[in-house]
Here is the input.
Amino acid sequence: MTRKYFGTDGIRGRVGEMPITPEFVMHLGYSAGKVLASSNWHLSKGERPAVLIGKDTRISGYMLESALQAGLSAAGVDVLLSGPIPTPAVAYLTRALRLQAGIVISASHNPFEDNGIKFFSAAGSKLPDATEREIEAGLKAPISSMPSAKLGKARRVDDARGRYIEFCKSTFPNHLDLRGLRIVVDCAHGATYQIAGHVLHELGADVVAIGTQPNGLNINYECGATHSAAVQEAVKRHQADIGIALDGDGDRVVMVDQKSALYDGDRLIYIIARHRQQNGLLKGGVAGTLMTNLAIENGFRKLNIPFARANVGDRYVLELLQEKGWQLGGEGSGHIICTDKHTTGDGIISALQVLYALRDSGKSLAELARGVTLYPQQLINVKVPKGFDSHVSVAIKAAQAEAERDLDGSGRVLLRASGTEPLIRVMVEGESKRKVKHWAEKIAEVVRNTAVE
Here is the structure.
């Protein structure tokens, strides 16, 4: 059975449209609760399974939180409510509180009109595909409430933010601090707005926090990891040493140096890996994705660091890390996973790993990233009808083949369907910026024309 609703990062869509409606989300909560209740072998007699629900700052989070809570309660599952906290905080707290699952209401880096639901297992990792399929299968059955005496209860977790702040701090070496550093942190008016600044301040940094005034509508709007101009300008204005930009749910990070030069996820992973190798802390190699810049792969080759590519999506990076027994991987978008620190990608913790390299070495970001210059890379998102498959089109195949012949080994072409939106992502990368731009635009136009035929 294939998954109808779950994509690479849970269920996501426009609020008010299927599947992000209160009716569907209540049914989803009920189905998930029934699946959890049927696998509660760790519970004591009479104890109900319990689930943590966290969310970002979108206005629709209130509605979806209530719908999920109602469905879970009807299935006999207790609910713990944390309010706005980052996605990786839900993963951590689910594990720390010994709960059966964690649920995040967020559409990550998407605009406020979108929202989504993603699940974490009791171990703090993404749910296996088989469990997601089981939850989807349960959506075919109607909701039938448990007897009143067996309904789930709900309560607030008042210390959720404090617990997570301490966890983040614990991943930074005790013998180092951030004193003397002025750091701008952009919280994207999202889930980290009450957390990221406190973590950095309590480690000693002089913190300038921006993107900390959420109103339910401004999450990710011209700020955060997907709009780095805001943090770059703030670093200049405040004469800061470092800038950190997180996305709406706190699992992505990009950084800028004191000259406001941008360091994406690929370069940050390179910095962390190189520092760990120099200190004998790198276990095995590094996992990237099909989108990882070719220059990063070549840079790791020069350092004799093994490198492997997974499909795009942090869940696939994690699967590859587990398969190889490695600890570090991620994506250029800023999803970075350090499995020795956390079970999932975490923007704050990843930034702390970069800051560790900076403080330990006494070098700047530019010095730490020396030796690797990213190849020009053009990514164009083409809207297509749902279910459109670019790989079956003769015209698209021909355009891709023509581009690859012209690049002649000095670059590459990648077409892939988004796992969260009805888009075909056209990526061209190579040594020649002119060729990259030309072929990305040409292939995107072919995809656009083919999709409407």
Observations:
- The chain has four domains: 11-158, 176-261, 264-374, 377-451.
- The mean pLDDT is 94.
